[in-house]
Structure formats: structure tokens, C-alpha cells
Amino acid sequence: MNIILLLIPVAIGVVILACYLFIWAVKTDQFEDLDRQGSNILFDDDVKSGKDKPPQ
């Protein structure tokens, strides 16, 4: 029965932390344009620098 006295504050702390992280994510636009980030990997351009060329 004493464990409930420990688990209730821990559960309240987890809920407060989750709410804080959700509000932070919304304010920093983490949920904006979700489709673009998923398709960026398909259109990744290869950037070649001069170091990649073999010597002639």
C-alpha cells in the first residue's frame, strides 16, 4: 500500500513532463510539413567535391 504513495507522484511527474514536451514540440513547429521530411530522402542530391575524384 505504501508503493501507491510513491507511484502517484511519479505518474503525475510523467504526465507533466509529457505535456511540457508536447507544448514545446508544438511551439517549435515540429509538426509542420510532415510530408516533406519523409520524401527528402528520395530526392537526395549527391554532392561531389574535388576530393572524391581519382588522380589523373
Descriptive key words:
56 residues; mainly alpha; 2 helices
Q: Judging from the principal axes of the Cα atoms, what is the shape?
A: elongated
Question: What composes the largest sheet?
Answer: none
Low-confidence stretches: none
What is the C-alpha radius of gyration, as a whole number of Å? 24 Å
**Strand percent estimate:** under 5%
Q: Output the structural class.
A: mainly alpha
Strands, total number: 0
Order of helices and strands: HH
Can you offer a commentary on this structure?
This protein is an all-alpha fold. Helices cover 55% and strands 0% of the residues. It is elongated and about 70 Å long. The relative contact order is 0.06.
Write the layout of secondary structure elements.
Blueprint: H1 3-27, H2 34-39
Summarize the structure.
The protein is an all-alpha fold.
